[in-house]
């Protein structure tokens, strides 16, 4: 099976390498061409454009940053839609607008190609380890066809429903991440101000009802005021904007998500947009007087 993978960013590059390691033939493309080199070193072929990558591919995977990027990669003048063959399957693993996802799927259908929207969660750690959670929208038969490839990248693969359902589920995921990280940041700030041994605090509360991935994997970074990259603040803010737009269309209030989106706006404005999402703890540490205001 020939796989094309477009998007060699923090998530995409290790995902493509895991597909290679699973024994598939992989062709990669990235707008910044040097980012193709790690996958090429593992045996991937390189294509000069999305169109060229899609030509002859059984499955085309796209993992780029935002809705306009996906539109350009798939529907642009040198996009996937102009190279993909009839009967091929396009899998978008980016996080984008559910409404635009449906429009793209229709354009591909007109060319005889099917589409899955299959955004992921698990951060760069999950991408490297092949343990991502994958939320799929589309036809069940198309998901079945894609499972050997998806299984090289993720451990939890769930068919949510029709096209667009994966993106709506990812919006829910990012709402939950926002609330969890903010709550963890509040707890860590309180413990620090109280002078507690925070290693013991994390151990104690992590074993009970307050336990979470965010606490286990990001709590210590918040205590240390050090935020190694897993998922960028600016990308999470983008995802929250997608969630808020979907919520407005459905008439659902999201006050916590709207609050965290504003916190992230402030972090981006201060130059912290490329730090990990857990950097929202900066605000609480500074407000509590644990740290001086930084810029």
Could you please describe the fold and organization of this structure?
It is a single chain. With 295 residues, the protein is α/β, with parallel strands linked by helices. It has 2 domains: 2-162, Rossmann fold, CATH 3.40.50; 168-287, Orthogonal Bundle (N-(1-d-carboxylethyl)-l-norvaline Dehydrogenase, domain 2), CATH 1.10.1040.10. The chain has helices spanning 12-21, 37-41, 50-54, 67-75, 98-110, 123-129, 140-150, 165-193, 198-206, 213-224, 233-250, 255-269, 281-287, and strands at 2-6, 25-29, 45-46, 59-62, 89-92, 114-117, 120-121, 132-137, 154-161. The strands form 2 sheets. It has a 6-stranded parallel sheet, sandwiched between helices. Strands 7-8-9 form a 3-stranded mixed sheet. Helix 2 (37-41) links the parallel strand 2 and strand 3. Helix 8 runs parallel beside helix 13, helix 9 (198-206) runs antiparallel to helix 10 (213-224) and helix 11 (233-250) runs antiparallel to helix 12. The longest helix is centred in the middle third of the chain and has 29 residues, at 165-193.
What is shown here, in short?
This protein folds into 2 domains: 2-162, NAD(P)-binding Rossmann-like Domain (Rossmann fold, 3-Layer(aba) Sandwich); 168-287, N-(1-d-carboxylethyl)-l-norvaline Dehydrogenase, domain 2 (Orthogonal Bundle), CATH 1.10.1040.10.
């Amino acid at each position: 099976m020939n796989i094309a993978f477009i998007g060699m960013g923090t998530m995409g590059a290790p995902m493509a390498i895991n597909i290679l390691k699973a024994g598939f033939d992989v062709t990669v493309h990235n707008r910044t061409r040097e980012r193709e080199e790690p996958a090429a070193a593992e045996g991937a072929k390189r294509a000069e454009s999305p169109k060229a990558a899609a030509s002859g591919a059984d499955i085309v995977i796209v993992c780029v940053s935002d809705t306009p990027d996906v539109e350009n990669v798939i529907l642009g003048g040198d996009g996937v839609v102009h190279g993909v063959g009839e009967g091929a399957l396009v899998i978008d693993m980016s996080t984008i607008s559910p409404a635009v996802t449906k429009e793209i799927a229709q354009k591909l259908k007109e060319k005889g190609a099917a589409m899955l929207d299959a955004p992921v969660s698990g951060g760069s750690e999950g991408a490297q380890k092949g343990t991502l959670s994958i939320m799929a929208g589309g036809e069940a038969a198309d998901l079945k066809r894609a499972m050997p490839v998806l299984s090289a990248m993720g451990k939890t693969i769930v068919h949510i429903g029709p096209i667009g359902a994966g993106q709506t589920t990812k919006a829910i995921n990012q709402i939950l991440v926002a609330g969890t990280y903010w709550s963890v940041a509040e707890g860590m700030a309180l413990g620090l101000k109280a002078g507690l041994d925070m290693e013991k605090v994390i151990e104690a509360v992590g074993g009970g009802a307050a336990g979470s991935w965010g606490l286990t994997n990001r709590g210590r970074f918040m205590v240390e005021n050090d935020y190694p990259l897993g998922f960028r603040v600016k990308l999470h803010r983008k995802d929250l904007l997608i969630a808020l737009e979907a919520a407005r269309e459905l008439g659902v209030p999201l006050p916590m998500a709207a609050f965290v989106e504003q916190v992230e706006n402030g972090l981006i404005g201060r130059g912290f947009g490329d730090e990990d999402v857990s950097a929202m703890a900066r605000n609480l540490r500074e407000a509590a007087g644990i740290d001086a205001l930084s810029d």
